[in-house]
Amino acid sequence: QKEVEQNSGPLSVPEGAIASLNCTYSDRGSQSFFWYRQYSGKSPELIMFIYSNGDKEDGRFTAQLNKASQYVSLLIRDSQPSDSATYLCALVLNSGNTPLVFGKGTRLSVIA
Amino acid sequence: DGGITQSPKYLFRKEGQNVTLSCEQNLNHDAMYWYRQDPGQGLRLIYYSQIVNDFQKGDIAEGYSVSREKKESFPLTVTSAQKNPTAFYLCASSWGSDGNEQFFGPGTRLTVL
Lengths: 112, 113
Description:
The structure holds two protein chains of two kinds. Chain A is an all-beta fold. Chain A is built from no helices and eleven strands. In chain B, the strands form two sheets. In chain B, strands 2, 4, 5, 6, 9, 10 and 11 form a seven-stranded mixed β-sheet that branches. Chain B has a four-stranded antiparallel β-sheet with strand order 1-3-8-7, with no helix packed on it. In chain B, β4 (31-37) and β5 (43-51) form a beta hairpin. Chain B has strands spanning 4-7, 10-13, 19-25, 31-37, 43-51, 54-57, 64-66, 76-78, 87-94, 103-104, 108-112. Chain B is an all-beta fold. Chain B contains no helices and eleven strands. At the A-B interface, β5 of A face β5 and β10 of B.
């Protein structure tokens, strides 16, 4: 099983809707989780990180972590065409002291 | 103005040539990383360094080499032994390699002619 799995998409949502991006992971002991946004031809930029079970909100973005079910999700409220990008999920394996492990990303398309 | 810089932005190489990609950071980060990204693919780790004069192989180190002589610099050499080097190369840095968020440079797009 791959360490970090994401649906490659594309995920298409209408403007103003909620976009829900999901990520599952195999290492039950993983502690730190990150969401990056990558526009086409550009480098990834960090959107949010979450360490504890539950929800973490930052503006239109909410990260949700459920360690028992081994998934982390990113919700984008009031989606805008400018949110159209690839969203990468990343985490630190339980072994620690290692670089982030990245999923392949989910491509989001927000339709005006 | 703090950040991570990579140069050049675009690089063209003939088969059989070695090329070196530059990565510099002024964030005072301890750890630096090199990733490769192919179209429609995720990030694959080439090499990383947690401290000056030390580095470790990532998942796809074959055909690449690095050095870390200074804290702020982590150049990557793509050697002729790398059979399919055309890709988007991303450098990143973080305070440490134990769970800290990584910040990325703008990337170098390498094309082998």
